[in-house]
Design brief:
The protein is mostly beta strands. The chain has six domains: about 5-210, Collagenase (Catalytic Domain), CATH 3.40.390.10; about 215-290 and about 305-340, Sandwich (Immunoglobulin-like); about 350-455, Sandwich (Immunoglobulin-like), CATH 2.60.40; about 460-545, Immunoglobulin-like, CATH 2.60.40; about 550-640, Sandwich (Immunoglobulin-like), CATH 2.60.40.10; about 645-735, Immunoglobulins (Immunoglobulin-like, Sandwich), CATH 2.60.40.10. It contains six helices and 51 strands. Strands 3, 4, 5, 6, 7, 8 and 9 form a seven-stranded mixed β-sheet that branches. A hairpin with an 8-residue loop joins β27 and β28. α1 (about 70-85) packs across α2.
Amino acid sequence: MRRARQLVAAAIALAAAAATAPGYYHYVHFAQDGGRFVEKFDLAALPDQRVLFFVSSQQLPLLAVNDSFDGVLSQIRQALSVWDEVPTSQLRVGFGGVVDGAAPGSAPAGQIIFAELPPGVIGLGGPVSTFDSGKGFQSIVRSQVVLADNLVDGSRPRTSFSELFFSTLVHEIGHALGLQHTLASSAMSTDVTRSTTRPQPLGADDLAGLSTLYPTDAFHQRTGVIEGRVVFGDGSAAALASVAAIHPSGSVVTALADPDGRYRIEGLLPGAYLLYAQPLPPASQSGLGPANVLLPADAAGAAIAPAGAFRAVFRGGGSRAEGSERVLVRAGSVVGGIDFQVESRQAASLSNITTYSFPGNNVPGVHPAFLNLTQRDGLLVATGQGLAAALPQLEIDAVGLDVEIRAAGLYEADTRFARIDFNQAPFAGAGAVHLLFRTADDLYLLPSAVRLTAGPAPVIFWITPDFASDQNLWRVGGTGFDPASEVYFDGAPGRVLGFDALTEEILVEPPPGPPGRSAVVTVYNPDGQSSALTLPDGNAVFDYVSAPEPSFDLSAAEGEAGSDVLIELHLNGAELEPEQISLGFGASDLVVRTIDVVAPDRLRAVVTLLPGAAPGRYPVTLSNGLQTLVRRDAFEVVSATASLESQPRLRYQALVNSATGRPDLSPGTLASLFGSSLTGQDPAAVQILIGGLAAKLVAVTDEQINLVIPEQAPTGALEVRLINGAGESAPMLVRLD
């Protein structure tokens, strides 16, 4: 859904100030001179270039009996990690914890709240506060994701363990990071055409869209660009026309034309691309532009109207993919002059087509659609604007993989739908198939309309203890499993230890979870299918053993603004899962920089208190597997103590490799420690201990000490201490490789 601007009486109203972008439809403002200003986070204002999202518990959602708020939080953490792991984006995304109301802090951040939304709407998202950074973009101060406070009622399953809820989370967080809607059937497409799932949560268009906002050097080095213009026959611009580029592998990246008709598609892998231009579908929500986007705005904030509808065409003006000239893209290069001339028309005859398939287990049609290549033949049903009326003259072609469509007609069980039958295609190979719907005077291309798979969707039959083991291991039995299947407990992955193809059982260790509560178990296959399709009601459940609720203690309960604090956390009544831990301190100015698990019940973390951190008490949130523990008012930010200003203080990553200036350190490395008040009254009395071992000092000044890291020091996270005549510093963590 569209991004949120403000919450008024538990409903969302959108501000008018927004605009188009050269690709993937970012939020862009046009200046008086035509300059473009995107809305994005300022990486320089984010420690470790990481934006934190905080979840408000002020209004909790209504949940199904087999759902839980722990489950909701686990799905949110997983959705945030999807965007955190985009390799060609510099922006990192993390979970900041649970707060009572609005997330405090002056640093940029995102917030996730629950509120009453219109029927059928599960979420909204986007920037809500920006300012002119003076660096050529609008800097986001706050972004917000608004989720429905009713996760029970709806025409489709919207429980936290459903595919719909997870894909909605990924979609709305994408809005909050600066992305608008796209026609690529990727995460940033509306749910009508979105074809992503948890195993395949992002499409090429999503990766390119985020990476264009926050590019790494590798993004520009490894990908290319196509640019051109879309105009009508009279030369006028086809503003907001969608131009799509299809790679031979089937991946799709799109762009929307600017008000002058110019488009630019970045993030294209090398290859020969099939290109087509297509109009945006009509808006389904009042106050929005076509495809439910926020229209571009001029320097005065007025919306720039899109061009009218036109007949979709492939590169060269044809209506068939096979006759279209491909465009060759090379890494690091720009291919220009790829123009389209389109024919104006009153309205598009086809748009917003959704496809459904039948995964078995007596489940009705599901979206996105899958077809099993091992079946004799297959069918899917489709619905969309103008589709049923066009069926008598409609031609449907597969674009991409080599599959044959046998017939298309009205679906006898419900004539609002079209039935599309496919011939068996055992040699087609797994992957996405794009469908081209063509009438005598129009065409509509739906990317990833159906995914071909080498097997059926998984179904869970039972979950039993592994009686051959004395550990907390369980066997998940069923059918349709894959050696690479993953098992999730709500939104937390279990540790898969093996797969028995003969008995079709997966051996798994559940993640830590809330005592006495249940988690819905879902098996996800790498082809995108899951038992969430075949068991949409969440009938496969794992019960955690009843026990006292775990708690945790902190070694330090306060810190000064503008400092780094090493904190030790002790968990009581449970064990830590090192791969599934997050720690948050309830404000954007309190940032966890690193976590080191030193024992099953103990971890160390470095927390940076930014200079803007306001004095006061803040909650601390520990997420461990499926369970989330929150301690209210557990940490306090205090004012600086003047009497201790002469004592040495160590900052995080102040110890760096002398040759590289980076914290890439190892035993025997020549390193430099930077800071202030390092030497005290007597430089000769300075000692530096790394992991309890004295480092050899090479040069000592009050602001820099050069030293050699002890050869005997072990690798991993070690404590560093500095001792001088004025006192001893608090410990800080350093990592040796």
